[in-house]
Amino acid sequence: xxxxxxxxxxxxxxxxxxxxxxxxxxxxxxxxxxxxxxxxxxxxxxxxxxxxxxxxxxxxxxxxxxxxxxxxxxxxxxxxxxxxxxxxxxxxxxxxxxxxxxxxxxxxxxxxxxxxxxxxxxxxxxxxxxxxxxxxxxxxxxxxxxxxxxxxxxxxxxxxxxxxxxxxxxxxxxxxxxxxxxxxxxxxxxxxxxxxxxxxxxxxxxxxxxxxxxxxxxxxxxxxxxxxxxxxxxxxxxxxxxxxxxxxxxxxxxxxxxxxxxxxxxxxxxxxxxxxxxxxxxxxxxxxxxxxxxxxxxxxxxxxxxxxxxxxxxxxxxxxxxxxxxxxxxxxxxxxxxxxxxxxxxxxxxxxxxxxxxxxxxxxxxxxxxxxxxxxxxxxxxxxxxxxxxxxxxxxxxx
Length: 399
Hints:
CATH architecture of the domain at 9-62 and 150-231: 2-Layer Sandwich
Order of helices and strands: HEEHEEHEEEHEEHEEEHEHHEEEEEE
Strand order of the largest sheet: 10-11-12-9-3-13
Largest sheet: 6 strands, mixed
Helix content: 10-25%
C-alpha cells in the first residue's frame, strides 16, 4: 500500500487492476473517481454496453469507498447512523441503505455488508470518514477506510454466473440476491456477493490487492467463450440509468457538500421512504423525517420519464404546459434495450403525479455546431425501466 503522506505527488492513484485495465484501454479514456484513475471506456462503449446486456462485462470497482466498521457496538452505531434496521441484516447478507444529517437531508446512499458477527463493510460513492468518526463518539466501534486494502471487480450480465462456474466458483449458484459467500482463491480469500449496479444478473468480487491480477486473468480466460470484456464507466452508467438507480452528486447533492439550501434532498424526495424504520429507535435525522412525513411537506419527487423522440435530454429543464418550470433531468439515455428515450428527473410535487399530464422537456440539440431548441412531450413512468426476471432467478441461469 502506498504511503498516504506522499499522496500529493500523485493526485490520482491507480487500482490494483491497473496493469490490465491500462493495457486494454485502447482509447486511453480515463477519469477520476474517489482519488483513483478509472477507465471511461476501452475500445467501443456501445459494444461494452452490449456485453453487459447480452454477455458479461468486467468492471474495476476498486475506487468505490469502503469502510470497515467493527467492534461490540458496530450494530448499535450503524442503527444510529443509517435509515434501515441493521438488526435485521444477518451475517452473509447485504442491504441497500442511506444516511442523513440531523436535518433529515441525504448525505449518501450505499450498500452495507454484514461480513461476520460484529464486522461490517459500508460501501458508498463519496468519502465520509471524518463525519463517521464524529458520529461514532460514545460507541465502542472501530472505523477504518479500507478502500486501498480491498480490490474489487463487478462481473455483470446474463452470462456472469456461467463464467463463475467455469472459473471453479460454481458454489456461487447458492447465492440469492443480496447474499455473499467466501471462497479460497490464490492462497487467500475471495468474497463474492450477488450485487451490482445494472439491474441484471451480476456479482461483485472482493479480494486483496495481491490477488487482483490473478483474479482478473482467471476470469478473462474462463469468460472468453461467453464474450466477457472489460467495461468502463460510460457503459455502466447507461445500465444504471435503465435500472433507475441514483448516484450521489449526480442525481442529488450530498448534504455535506451542498452550498445552496434548496439543493438538499430528503429520502422522501428521492423515493427512499421505504427504507426508513421509525420503530428501531433514534437515528440521524429521525425527528426531521418524522415531521416531514406527518406534515406531508415533501417538495420533490425523483421519477422516471419517457420522452418523445430519440434526442437525449441530459440536464434539460421540464415545464408544465410549456410555460412553468417544474423540474430538471439528472440523467438521460436513448436506451438500446428498451428502445425508448428515458430519463431520471427531479419534479416538484404534485407534477410527479396528479399534475403530470402536460409535461414538456426543453432540449437543446447540437446539430452541426448549431443548437436547436426542441420542446418534446414527456410522461412520468416507473423509474426502473429494465428489470428482467433473470436478475432474481434462483438458481441463476447458465446462459
